[in-house]
Amino acid sequence: MKRRDLLAAGATAVLTSTAWSQAATFPTRPITLICPWPPGGGADVQLRMLAKLMGDQLGQQVVVENRPGATGSLGALALMQARPDGYTLAQSHNGVLRQPFIAPVPYDPLKDFTYLIGVSDNPFGLVVREDREWRTLEQFIEHARRNPGKVNIGVPGLGSPGHLVSEQIAAQHDLKWAVVPYRGTANTMQALLSGEIDAAAESTGWVPFVDSNRARLLAVFSRQRLKKFPNVPTLIERKINASDFSPWGIVAPAGLDPAVAAKLHDTIRRAMDSPEFTNLLAMLAQEPIYMSPQKYLEYVREAVPQQKLIVDKFNLKAS
């Protein structure tokens, strides 16, 4: 072997050894986990539990930072400004994949992120205040039919599953109601309980309110009934051709050292499998939906063109 080849091989070995050494000692300072929703909602609660469990394993604090807005895509924007060193992570979801087709954003979901792990689904449902007269979805739809333009439904942002499914229900039943966007579940539920809106098409952050008899769940948007609420029908069961699958996971900036990515994946996977986290998901009517980095990226590759079709179908593109 020529001398320069020996030097090149040696340099490669040193770099590889250094990378693995850095991964072995990672992390040496706190990690930031961006929650793209306001405090107090279901996503915020889950990420805070995940952060605690990760921190216990890593020996460094994992700090949740809330960056709500733009239907949960501001976390992705913040991630674009972070170094790919494993110290800044964010929750990702379908809204992040959809946003580039709605308005110009500086990120490309297929190129600018390292997909670490898929964690769970985020089922949506239609809830009303417990003291309202509608006990079934059919009764609520009939009320909306008799009162065109007077019913308000809160959703976690334009282009969210709550928004899209609400529009599908209205189209299939020839209804006219107003869809009101909020910055996240906590804000939507506050508006519902105060009487500002008639219903909320939201993710399962409404579970505590249903459990405490302050809200009533009329239907779920998932493909199957939720284990926690086996008596509540799906929209499909009620002859409404609409459903939603909203998986979420954890991502890092593109260019992350593979060894650091593997360590973060393994840490999050152990946290996912813990009784504390699985019990929290069950309490929120969710279940773990694990996706490896490869499977998660495959899902994203399939989902991105689907999100463009959704934006075109519902005319969501910003003018």
What can you see in these coordinates?
- By secondary structure, the chain is of the alpha/beta class.
- The protein has helices at residues 3-25, 42-58, 74-80, 94-102, 137-146, 161-173, 185-194, 207-211, 258-273, 275-283, 293-313, and strands at residues 31-35, 62-66, 88-92, 113-121, 124-129, 152-155, 178-181, 199-203, 215-220, 247-253, 288-291.
- The strands form two sheets. A six-stranded mixed β-sheet has the order 2-1-3-10-4-11, with helices on both faces. A five-stranded mixed β-sheet has the order 7-6-8-5-9, with helices on both faces.
- The longest helix has 23 residues, at 3-25.
Q: Kindly, what is the distance between the CA atoms of the first and last residues, rounded to a whole number of angstroms?
A: 62 Å
Largest beta-sheet characterization: 6 strands, mixed
Helix and strand sequence: HEHEHEHEEHEHEHEHEEHHEH
Give the amount of beta strand, in percent: 15-25%
| CATH classification class of the largest domain | Alpha Beta
Number of strands: 11
What's the total helix number?
A: 11
* Estimated structural class: alpha/beta
Note poorly predicted spans.
Answer: none
Mean pLDDT across residues: 93
> What shape does the CA trace take?
globular
CATH superfamily of the largest domain: Bordetella uptake gene, domain 1
* Rg from Cα: 22 Å
CATH topology of the largest domain: D-Maltodextrin-Binding Protein, domain 2
Helical percent range? 40-55%
CATH architecture of the largest domain: 3-Layer(aba) Sandwich
Q: Please list the strands of the largest sheet in the order they lie side by side.
A: 2-1-3-10-4-11
> What's the domain count?
2
